[in-house]
Write a structure and sequence with these properties.
The structure is a homodimer of 384-residue chains. By secondary structure, the first copy, chain A, is α/β, with parallel strands linked by helices. Chain A folds into three domains: 3-75, Arc Repressor Mutant, subunit A, CATH 1.10.10.10; 82-196 and 368-383, Nucleotidyltransferase, domain 5, CATH 3.30.420; 205-361, ATPase, nucleotide binding domain (Nucleotidyltransferase, domain 5, 2-Layer Sandwich). Chain A is built from 14 helices and 14 strands. The longest helix of chain A has 25 residues, at 296-320. Chain A starts with 9 loop residues before the first helix and ends with a helix.
Chain lengths: 384, 384
């Protein structure tokens, strides 16, 4: 278990938890924090002083009287700095600046190709963040959270054996970024950050949920016990190489096995399958456009993808019994895919596991990744 | 999330956690408990006094001096009572008495048939527990933990839609037992209790692990963050109706779907498949005997079962990234089954997820269920 996933006292009363209580409006005084966290007033004061000293919190004026001494009001300073966020996909990226409460100030989508290799791609994205910061109010950059579309060795920030990211295997994203910008950096897998962003920003009440990212590749992030769940090696949620039951014929996957979910249901797989039938597509966005225009071949293949995703998720749902399954990424906007994924889940899961299961699109949409990247780096800075 | 699974402060400093620290020998004084739990000395004292008042702990003599006032020694009283445990299978049951530390005092295996229905079966098992208590030292019975081979509505102790348990659907095991014996009762699924027993008694250091029970039926228990994980509806770990990739033809399952793991890899499925080939078997134990005697048909079918279990577990391992997968139940003693399950896992999982994965038999063997049943009721009594 990694430190930030550990259940226990730290999860309810750490400095970052106190900050989050203020950021969400749940607490507006030290007394609120003590009541909500169960910490002693002296421990709350100690942590609040640290947060104030580091510029994360400010204590002003007088709060509402509750009898006795009037509590002072805690708030997150608007001029306390900004957070940078990068969400890198296979063919595009989204960069943003966010305030210390984790709300987006400015964002920008840009075309990039991971095939160009890590140095030019990351260099371009760091420059874009710096530009957004420079065009802002002048508040200082406090740190940058970076999401990448491949497995990340969580403790190190290094990419490990990614599919569809030639030239990135073993690349130390953390080191590269840290060498170029003078602020703290945190790196994680894009699906993990999508899960974290959606959970914290939209439905933080969910204890157990699965967040599937279906874009050029396919993956998932997991929330368990209200926290991002990474598992023993940090690879939890990586369903991309699970074998699909009904894929026939079973195509060869980049991992060397056949019939993997990635090889039959990812955006890249859909492009390849349509191209092999002579239909001129070069990107998952092209496939989505064909579906929008009612192309039967494209729609049929997207329906199959939804069914395959549903088959693998049916094992996940039976085993993990989550409250919700969310789908995000470029393919999530496609109604036929969501419909056939739902059909598969309802057909193959225990009725007990689906009777109250939510199966929905992300409510934070394309912003989920940058919201999660910001949460990751805020957590990391305050922990350290 | 159910109360006893909630991560957070309760998981580290509750009265049951303090008792467990003494039971495992990790703590022998209030000072040890304060140090290990992080609780204040006054909170520790308050909880210890409650445990002493309720007869779970005794404070005696003087402990080792560490300078200053000598700590008094905490221990679990040998005459403080006994715990009853029932582990019911489809064709047999195991009942036991255990001391307040959760060690077995006496146990007994007996033939029972769940097909006989809940009242005669549970009546017989309660009588067997009472008899074991009566033949002991005279210490009073404090409570009984009951494991049953089907889905249990955790909050209520009622059985919900079980396969292979005719007459048990909706039966309120908790109520039936509580009406007959004057002690607290707790009821859970057999696979959950197997997981809890193995985890607490053998490898409590594991944070994330999966425990497959392969007997007449098939199921799994899950440990996450060091706690029994039940999921949103309490059905986590129920992999019995996951569809198996390569089962062809796909047999009809009792749930109305085809190709479920239960229908191709449970002990009951193996008996049926061999019987259909004219091989005279009536129970999973008969199948195991044939394998022991080198019967090629029985061995082939057991190898297939291992492969099917491995196929479903490969999705579970990719998704959940546990440190260990354990197998228990009658079929677990069969080496060809374990070997083909391992082969499937290594073939179909991410290398990152299996590089340090333990794939083993339970080390507590047939006792895992009664050890878990005792832990369940001890936890329940102390919580209440």
């Amino acid at each position: 278990m990694t430190v930030d996933d550990a259940p226990g006292f730290a999860a309810r009363g750490s400095a970052r938890d106190l900050l989050r209580l203020v950021a969400t409006g749940a607490a507006e005084s030290r007394a609120d924090l003590a009541r909500l966290s169960g910490l002693s007033p002296s421990t709350v004061s100690q942590r609040v002083e640290t947060l104030i000293g580091d510029g994360w919190l400010r204590e002003v004026g007088e709060g509402k009287s509750r009898g006795g001494r009037r509590p002072r009001h805690l708030e997150i300073p608007g001029d306390g700095g900004v957070i940078g966020a990068i969400d890198l996909g296979a063919h595009h990226a989204r960069v943003a600046t966010l305030d210390l409460s984790g709300h987006v100030i400015a964002s920008k989508s840009m075309a990039v190709e991971v095939h160009d290799g890590p140095e030019p791609v990351l260099g371009k994205l760091l420059a874009a963040v710096t530009e957004l910061v420079g065009s802002g109010t002048g508040a200082a950059l406090r740190g940058i959270g970076v999401g990448v579309p491949g497995p990340v060795e969580h403790s190190a920030g290094r990419i490990v054996s990614p599919s569809r990211m030639p030239g990135w295997n073993g690349f130390d994203v953390y080191r590269f970024c840290t060498d170029r910008v003078e602020v703290p950096i945190a790196v994680d897998n894009d699906a993990n950050l999508m899960a974290l962003g959606e959970h914290r920003s939209a439905r933080a009440d969910l204890d157990h949920a699965v967040y599937v990212k279906a874009g050029t590749g396919i993956g998932a992030g997991v929330i368990s016990g209200g926290q991002l769940y990474r598992g023993a090696q940090g690879s939890a949620g990586d369903i991309s190489h699970c074998r699909v039951v009904s894929a026939d014929p079973a195509p060869l996957c980049s991992c060397g096995n056949t019939g993997c979910l990635e090889a039959v249901a990812s955006g890249a797989a859909l492009v390849q399958a349509l191209a092999e039938r002579g239909i001129p597509v070069t990107s998952p966005a092209d496939v989505m456009r064909l579906v929008d225009h009612g192309d039967p071949h494209a729609t049929a293949i997207v329906r199959s993808a939804g069914r395959y995703i549903g088959e693998i998720l049916s094992v996940v749902v039976n085993f993990f019994n989550p409250q919700a399954v969310f789908i995000g990424g470029l393919l999530a906007d496609c109604e036929p895919l969501l419909a056939s994924m739902r059909a598969s889940l309802y057909e193959r899961c225990l009725p007990l596991a689906t009777q109250t299961l939510l199966i929905e699109r992300l409510s934070t949409g394309v912003d989920a990744g940058i919201l999660g990247a910001a949460q990751l780096i805020i957590d990391r800075i305050i922990e350290s």
